[in-house]
Amino acid sequence: MDIKGNPNQPHEQDEKEVHVTNHLEQISTDSGNDNGIAEKGPAERTQDWTPEEERKIVWKIDFRVFPMLCIVFGLSLLDRTNISAAFIAGMSTDLELIGSRYNVALLVFFIGYGLFELPSNFVIRRLGARWWLSFLIVSWGCCVLGMGFIHEWTILAVLRALLGIFEAGLFPGAVYIIGSWYRQYETGRRISIFYMASLISSGFGPVFAYALSLISVGDGMYSQGWRWIFIVEGVVTVVAGLVSPFFLIEFPEKVKFLDERQKHIALERVAIEKRDKEVVHPNIKETLSMLLDWKLLLYSINYFIAASSVYSLAFFKPIILREGMGFPYAKAQLLSSPPYVFAIIASISAAWVSDKIRLRWVILNFQALVAIIGLLIILYTKPPGVRYFGMFLATYGTQANIPGTLTYGQNQIARLEKKGVVAAAMISAGAIGGVCGSTIFRDQDSPLYLPGMWATIALQMLHIVITFCMSMYFKRQNAKAERGAVLEGVTGFRYAP
């Protein structure tokens, strides 16, 4: 008997195999998969790799994602806040920053910073992260360099406005990149490490600025130390921008340092959780529709609060230390650094705990409460040492909720393309917070700056209320999902309260 059987009567098993093969080929074709791996639906995705393979790939990703991103973001924080060091190093006198001129120079930065964040995240995925971010870095470095050669405060304001435009794309772009590489409860500590590692520059920036302010060349304008703060830091940023294309990482679908299997694992491990592997570039209409999510408004308010508090302390900490606590110029600069060191260690530890216990709101509200306690100590105690201890608490509580609030917003998004929109929208709200933070501490309120301090305290209280209410809502929604409801239009997705 012919083992192939009658050709006019194919076996039933053969028919099934042909049907399955055709079905898989159709799925692969429809999904545009060029790796030879058929795209699976939410219910069909399974893990086809070992935990050891995944750990090795995650480590490999970590060492490619973070080093250069941390360096350039650290430079961006330094370049936007070094104006406070220059102010007390003599710039205020040389440029006649009287009345509200200093506040104007601070707040114009945030106009472009707020307006260009969302357009930048709209562009970054299309042009590629390496080249787009490198262009931005070189551009803002040139702005900082130019500040070292100015003679009028109006030119300072113009350069600060341009600085905001070029810096706008880095932070939301970096958060977008990190969110595309990691799972829901892997992002908390990583965004915190990214932000806090970058914060080292802010911590030691005043010390570095003090050293630069001691430079004096000749008898002309180059004898003015504050100019060298901008000149040296601007040159460093430009050089970093020129070399960054060789070190910055791309989005998962564009990288070349992973082989095909590693790239499959990197994409699929995130897709299993998010139920979304296909890379979609939303058009303007789709982007605007994503902005109509009511939850995004609350994420943005929380980030406005966090950013406002951070900027107000960053811009005015040296001034508070000098005028409010009576420390001389050199000591005020040097004492600005230790609170940041404490904030870095405490924030990363708290983010690790948050990922470990899989709970966000408790940590966020604890940090906001610490900030309130620190601000009250600064306001209502007399000994300078005790008030300085309050600065440690206030710096930790406010700084830690920057990455914490961003992580909270990213964790509630199921689809990758929406993560970029949410990150940009939140950080745009942070730009408005920068305007607030640069104006609530006024000259006439010196030395206690009572209105600005109490405005910051009230905002931290509001952050606590919003975070708690949102998290209780998310818990109720997750309970509904356990009974069969679909969240965010994606089967199997859960919020991270």
From TrEMBL:
- Which InterPro entries does the entry mention? MFS, MFS_dom, MFS_trans_sf
All copies of the Major facilitator superfamily (MFS) profile domain together span: 65-475
Among its keywords, does the record have Ribonucleoprotein? no
Keyword Transmembrane helix recorded: yes
**Which Pfam families does this one have?**
MFS_1 (PF07690)
Listed transmembrane segments: 65-90, 102-124, 131-151, 157-181, 193-216, 228-249, 296-316, 336-354, 361-380, 386-408, 420-441, 453-474
Chief site of localization:
membrane
Q: Where is this region: Disordered?
A: 1-49
User: Compositional bias (Basic and acidic residues) spans?
Assistant: 11-22
Q: Which SUPFAM superfamilies match?
A: MFS general substrate transporter
Topology with respect to the bilayer: Multi-pass membrane protein
Q: Where in the cell is it found?
A: Membrane
Name of protein: Major facilitator superfamily (MFS) profile domain-containing protein
